[in-house]
């Protein structure tokens, strides 16, 4: 009896080349996977929330560099109306109410840190001013508090000079000053450091957290072994890399925009003069650039510890030379050219300050955007080459 013929073996459909729609679909699904991975990491979420809320407010309001609430002692050896005017002219919030002390109390009270400034008014001071004789006031400064000492000494000299000028102007035989200087501060009329520091901190957090989240996402998959699952899936290295960049960049952008609106604008009270949509465009470009940097650092390290040690100096140098804390003009000229050539951060800082502080439009900030795109293209090419070689072995 003849055996029954076995059923024909089904033939697998031959896989054709991926279309653009296939690439987009793969990237979309990989982005969803990355977002779920971020949601499943509570430590990273807590770090993200803290960095864009409490950290921004603490840096803006805790480290104040302007002169405020300064302690002043006065040694009044004249006892005149002018010396009393000088003491009354030192008002809050710049100065605390002046403390009347004697000359023998100067050294002990300054050594104990009770007084930051001591003003010594010599005998016959008012009489010398009336007679237009040369005289002077000695100001003793505790320079251990460098920032307050420098700014405070300038404010103290201005306050004393103003009181003396008012006293002289009140005399009938006095002549007015030939020039009347009027100073108007633009964009930050009260010269509040918190307004500047808050926005600067948001800019710094975008840089730091985008690099950390993107690099950590790659390192985490390599340590857990889940990256091997991607190797057997019908995806290409560029799709995996773009998905990590887009997912982490999206999370950072949402957090940054919420921080600008609720922390910087509402909590701290800093005005936002420019377009948030324009800032979002520039921040999106910048986030993709530094995300590529995070991928590149992630391919250079094999563990999370190595990645942290590698990222710390890179982030420190990037932020210190970005122009966010100190102006670019304070650096050597050759270093300015080097930093602006290899780092996108100075361009993003200049872009953000122009948009958020001065209300610039696209016609004024297109150059930083183009610079970020060019540097980002180089970063992406290098990171893609490293990613293919390290992860896929190709």
Structure description:
Strand 1 (72-76), helix 4 and strand 2 (99-100) form a beta-alpha-beta unit. The chain has helices at residues 20-39, 42-52, 54-62, 81-88, 106-111, 125-130, 146-169, 193-224, 227-231, 237-267, 276-300, 304-320, 333-342, 345-357, 362-392; strands spanning 72-76, 99-100, 117-121, 138-141. It has 394 residues and is mostly helical. It is elongated. It has a 4-stranded mixed sheet with strand order 2-1-3-4, covered by helices on one side. It folds into 2 domains: 26-62 and 191-392, no CATH class; 72-169, 3-Layer(aba) Sandwich (abc type-2 transporter like fold), CATH 3.40.1710.10. It is built from 15 helices and 4 strands.
Biggest β-sheet description: 4 strands, mixed
**Which percent band covers the strand fraction?**
under 5%
Structural class: mainly alpha
Low-confidence stretches: 9-15
Helix proportion of residues, in percent?
Answer: 55-70%
Which radius of gyration do the C-alpha atoms yield? 31 Å
Strand order of the largest sheet: 2-1-3-4
> What is the average of the pLDDT values?
86
Extended strand count: 4
Oligomeric status: single chain
Topology:
Blueprint: H1 20-39, H2 42-52, H3 54-62, E1 72-76, H4 81-88, E2 99-100, H5 106-111, E3 117-121, H6 125-130, E4 138-141, H7 146-169, H8 193-224, H9 227-231, H10 237-267, H11 276-300, H12 304-320, H13 333-342, H14 345-357, H15 362-392
Helix pairs in contact: 1-10, 2-8, 3-8, 8-10, 8-11, 8-12, 8-14, 10-11, 11-14, 11-15, 14-15
Describe the structure concisely for a colleague.
With 394 residues, the chain is mainly alpha-helical. The protein contains 15 helices and four strands.
